[in-house]
Amino acid sequence: MKRTLPLPSLERLCGIYGLLDSLPETLGNRVSSRELGRAIGQTAETVRKDIAHMKADIVSAGGYDPAELKGAIASYLGLQEPRRACIAGLGRLGQAILRYPGFQDAGIEICAGFDSDTNKLELLASPVPLLPSYRITEYVQKEKISLGIIAVPPDQAQITADRLTAGGVRGIVNFTVPVSVPETVNMRHVSVLDELRILAALADGADQNIQEK
Amino acid sequence: MKRTLPLPSLERLCGIYGLLDSLPETLGNRVSSRELGRAIGQTAETVRKDIAHMKADIVSAGGYDPAELKGAIASYLGLQEPRRACIAGLGRLGQAILRYPGFQDAGIEICAGFDSDTNKLELLASPVPLLPSYRITEYVQKEKISLGIIAVPPDQAQITADRLTAGGVRGIVNFTVPVSVPETVNMRHVSVLDELRILAALADGADQNIQEK
């Protein structure tokens, strides 16, 4: 079948899904495309187009039913299927992610944590196995882990990506410096510094150059 | 003057800038649009268009000079100007950001940290002032802080955004649930869960629906 959903629409649909998932109490019985758009920083029209893209059989008159919309997105994007993930790098950031309570509900099981410092592995308490980094490939392969999170220092970023890729992950969330991965692996680079720079540019640095949203 | 740079181009230029800034040693004397594209997950053509958008006086034959390109992006986006930022929420994530050594070099000064737990404020060692959350508005205003980072638990997210906004920040990086801010404030929502869902959808859940990059 032909692939038809552009990446920005996928990103927005995941944002809407996250909103429906994390804040159902604020949305009431019906939620309009305008409310959804305001919450994720998009126009009502963009939200309507993204939702229409799914060609799902959902009622939009008088707003969407949050549970129905959430179900439609999950079904369209294949989000019901549970996924296995692991974290490489157990510094403050890696530990924060390891202990984040929201994954299980979201159908994502954090199965393992890895760090190159074996002393640290002994000291950390964790409900999931913590293993030395050289075991990433073997363990990811054995446990059929499909998603990896990289939270290691910059000098370990590429070897960590290589180990995850060799183990067969299909996607990586990368919190450190950019790394190279084969085209078969999808990568999402998350950088606080990049986000702050985008905000700085939007705030006043380049008012004359940047398009209004 | 008219604003002409679309947000996705701004995001990509900040990604390229971050790459040039964090990995200069891997790029050599000249870097091609293809190499830049591969590193940030974009096509060479997209990178060329984004760079051309700046209408900067830079040589592109045989690849770009990394330092020259970095300077051109900084100048176009107003990134040379130093910025003052603060962090609200000093759990593991907030502490990880507070201690991240890369901000200073990037022209971003983390000026303060806030948390509602005053015991925690006393226990944490920090080179910058740590203050109780109810002081956010006053302190942000007094210190002319223009950027805020939200790393608080979900139930404190909205009040934290309100306090930062009342203090006059122009942009917020939000690591928690979506919050509402006035149109004058730019918001960047960062969610590991959203990123994992995007990867899950790209990996195999919706192969038939999603456009190839």
UniProtKB/TrEMBL annotation, chains A, B:
Residues 79-179 form the CoA-binding domain. One of its GO terms (biological process) is response to redox state. It comes from the Bacteria. Residues 15-54 bind DNA. One of its GO terms (molecular function) is DNA-binding transcription factor activity. Pfam families: CoA_binding, Put_DNA-bind_N. One of its GO terms (cellular component) is cytoplasm. It is found in: Cytoplasm. Keywords: Cytoplasm, DNA-binding, NAD, Repressor, Transcription, Transcription regulation. Belongs to the transcriptional regulatory Rex family. Homodimer. HAMAP family: Rex. PANTHER family: REDOX-SENSING TRANSCRIPTIONAL REPRESSOR REX, REDOX-SENSING TRANSCRIPTIONAL REPRESSOR REX 1. NCBIfam families: PRK05472.2-3 (NF003994), PRK05472.2-4 (NF003995). This is Redox-sensing transcriptional repressor Rex. The gene is rex.
